[in-house]
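Question thread 4412

I'm putting together a teaching handout and wanted feedback from people who do this every day. The idea is simple: show students a protein as raw sequence, then show them the structure tokens that encode its fold, then repeat with a second protein so they can compare. Below is the first pair exactly as I plan to print it.
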Amino acid sequence: MSPPDIRLLEPDDHLAATGLLVHLNPDCPTQLLLQRFRTILDEHPHYLPIGAFLGDKLVGFAGVWIATKIWCGRYLEIDNFVVHPSHRSEGIGTALMAFLEELAREKGCNLQTLDSYTNNYASHRLYHRQGFEIWGFHFVKTLGSLDR
């Protein structure tokens, strides 16, 4: 199998990206995911939607935030990393991770971060293989309904 073509998504790719995001958020309606995705793109210029393509089919996706924090300086946060279930274990995730690491280096980032659901064991294995370590906990306090 040839390696995926990895690139910044075009507006025409946004619906396909939302189709992948459903796999991470199965309880969230697709229209709400699309609305949130478009809001992020409209309001946050430091967010980059990156896709992995086989031919013209989007098979992998990661949102990327590039920002600065007091404790670490410039960093790249990988958000909503997903590979379509029918294309997992084909090297798509590994190729996408390599692309993101190179992007982080090009952008002068000191580190990469990501969150993963605690029960997503397959992703944990991938992240550990890619050199990620668990440094802490991500605490959440809900302030309202998550379906708005």
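The second pair follows. I'd like the answer to focus on this one:
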Amino acid sequence: MIRIERLDHLVLTVADVDRTITFYTEVLGMEPVVFGGGRRALRFGPHKINLHAAGHEIDPKAARPTAGSADLCLVSAVPIEEVIAHLGASGVAIEVGPAPRTGALGEMTSVYFRDPDNNLIEVSTY
């Protein structure tokens, strides 16, 4: 039987890779990386989000890659109040929250907002 240990990376299909990198680095503090002959990604902790430009995806790819179809939950290292203040200072509108939720490790508090492709981004604290 297979036993999955952790998530290594995921892929976002985006309309504009540069715009996405700017948002995720400036708003969420991720680190831009280049790998594999010029491919681009975002790194945070031991995880990575690979970026595919819509219409120019890398094979193999999702059956129907579409910009704006993701729903991600990210865990913050700072209190939710600091997340809210930073989002406000960055001009990012919170759609929902702070609200109680249940994550992989139990009870957490979350805020929801959109990235430039309208992906739903949830930032949570335990």
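Top answer:
Good format. For the second protein you could add a caption like this: Helices lie at 17-26, 80-89. Residues 26 and 45 are 16 Å apart (CA to CA).
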